[in-house]
């Protein structure tokens, strides 16, 4: 049954189930959702006798049926004039949809002119997660505006493809790879520094300013904030899926192929500056007695001047980084 006709039967069904005049008080709200909103608004039946209520419901039903019959042709013609896009999302992109139960392929009728970037991001997928778009078999960029019915295939971002040949969607990523994290993934930023990657924290500015600063510094933005990645000024970024910082660094390293580029314990996890070797005698007065006794090799941050040595925490982090390296595919 047509959804518009089904809505017309809803008030009658509620009366039949309730079987009581008291149920009439709720019908004013129910009838307001019917297709003919003007007739529904005029049909105020609260507090009236049961037989009069049934008469009003039948009248309301007939009015809606006549309205649907009269306008059905024009409604269908209007829908036919809109471009019908058949979307196919490859890889795991469908897991990012705002609607959790949306399939990986579906049809969409466009009611207004919009860029393919805006259409895709309306589904909940930031443009940074898209690697290639094909419309009607032709590769297009984010400014493409569909004007006729066609099939649109959306591919996920693949660093190995972009590294070999920059696509229409993503320019070449600068070398060495550098990152910027926001407040949603601060622990990820600390782990990236421990792995030896230049990583800064995004300033408390607007999304636009953050995107522009990352572009000037040649940094990839890592965040769990989809709205930040949807900003047009963000050229390179990654939507972090996991909430566990131990898994997050694996996501980043695996996406950008950082297995051979990890250089652990070369950056300060606190301020991102370089760690330099320092003689024990030069910092002896700054060490605790037990540290002086058991450790001989020390590193010092050239920025915040914090001192590091190979203690138990160093061993735990070494094991953790080795586990990350072994999980990276390339």
Automatic annotation (TrEMBL):
UniProt organism field: Desulforhopalus singaporensis
Residue ranges constituting the Ubiquitin Mut7-C domain according to the UniProt record: 85-157
One Pfam family hit: Mut7-C
Name recorded for this polypeptide: Mut7-C RNAse domain-containing protein
Leader peptide range in chain numbering: none
UniProt superkingdom: Bacteria
Transmembrane segments: none
All copies of domain Mut7-C RNAse, residue ranges: 178-319
């Amino acid at each position: 049954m047509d959804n518009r006709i089904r809505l017309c039967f809803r008030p009658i069904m509620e009366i039949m189930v309730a079987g009581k005049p008291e149920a009439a008080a709720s019908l004013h709200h129910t009838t307001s959702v019917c297709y003919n909103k003007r007739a529904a608004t005029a049909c105020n039946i609260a507090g009236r006798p049961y037989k009069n209520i049934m008469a009003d419901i039948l009248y309301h039903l007939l009015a809606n049926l006549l309205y649907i019959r009269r306008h059905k042709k024009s409604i269908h013609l209007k829908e036919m004039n809109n471009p019908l896009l058949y979307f196919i999302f490859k890889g795991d992109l469908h897991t990012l949809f705002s609607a959790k139960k949306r399939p990986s392929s579906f049809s969409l009728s466009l009611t207004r002119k919009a860029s393919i970037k805006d259409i895709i991001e309306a589904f909940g997928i930031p443009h940074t997660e898209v690697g290639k778009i094909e419309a009607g078999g032709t590769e297009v960029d984010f400014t493409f505006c569909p004007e006729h019915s066609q099939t649109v295939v959306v591919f996920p971002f693949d660093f190995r493809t972009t590294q070999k040949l920059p696509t229409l969607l993503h320019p070449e990523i600068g070398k060495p790879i550098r990152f910027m994290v926001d407040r949603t993934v601060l622990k990820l930023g600390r782990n990236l520094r421990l792995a030896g990657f230049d990583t800064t924290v995004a300033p408390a500015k607007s999304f636009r300013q953050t995107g522009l600063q990352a572009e000037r510094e040649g940094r990839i933005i890592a965040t769990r904030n989809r709205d930040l990645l949807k900003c047009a000024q963000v050229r390179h970024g990654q939507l972090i899926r996991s909430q566990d910082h131990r898994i997050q660094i694996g996501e980043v390293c695996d996406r950008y192929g950082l297995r051979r580029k990890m250089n652990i314990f070369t950056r300060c996890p606190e301020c991102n500056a370089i760690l330099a070797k320092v003689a024990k005698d030069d910092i002896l007065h700054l060490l605790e007695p037990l540290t002086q006794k058991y450790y001989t090799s020390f590193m010092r941050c050239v920025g915040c001047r914090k001192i590091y040595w190979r203690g138990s925490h160093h061993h735990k982090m070494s094991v953790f980084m080795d586990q990350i390296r072994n999980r990276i595919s390339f």
